[in-house]
Amino acid sequence: MALINCKECGKQISDQASSCPHCGAPVAGNPPAPSATVAPLAAESVRKTSTYKYILYGTLVLLVAISCMGGGKTSNTPREFNATQAIFLCEHAIKQVSRDPEKAEVPMVSNVGSGDEYVFVWGPQTKLTRLRNGLGLEVGVPAVCKVSHAQKKMTSLSVDGKTIF
Ligand SMILES: [Zn+2]
């Protein structure tokens, strides 16, 4: 560190100083102190601006997501309730009759109903419906399941000759 003379007041000052401690004149070659204080302020304001941008962006994304979900609901409503969805309802219900729903096998069968009603029939002779009975044996049992197309739900179910509902 060397001593130099201030250009303004002529007093000796450090060449490392950014300004003269006597008169306050800036020292050539050293970046003025203000940049050190202004820069963080600028950075702070940039941070604030970007924070506001993120909040604004986040709000927009949220609004878009909400409107998409709303739109999704309206576009889902008119979707066709088909035989696959109908048999899925039956399959799930029949499995619940089994002692071991996880292992129950309810194979796909064709819809034999017509009009508003889907009708699915499983027969024991083909072992299509395999449920566990009270003895824990895997057996084939008949099942008949009816699903209303308009109501999109089961209207009747019988398994092994018993009416479930
Ligand atoms: Zn000076």
UniProtKB/TrEMBL annotation:
<protein>
    <submittedName>
        <fullName>Zinc-ribbon domain-containing protein</fullName>
    </submittedName>
</protein>
<dbReference type="Pfam" id="PF13240">
    <property type="entry name" value="Zn_Ribbon_1"/>
</dbReference>
<dbReference type="InterPro" id="IPR026870">
    <property type="entry name" value="Zinc_ribbon_dom"/>
</dbReference>
<feature type="domain" description="Zinc-ribbon">
    <location>
        <begin position="6"/>
        <end position="27"/>
    </location>
</feature>
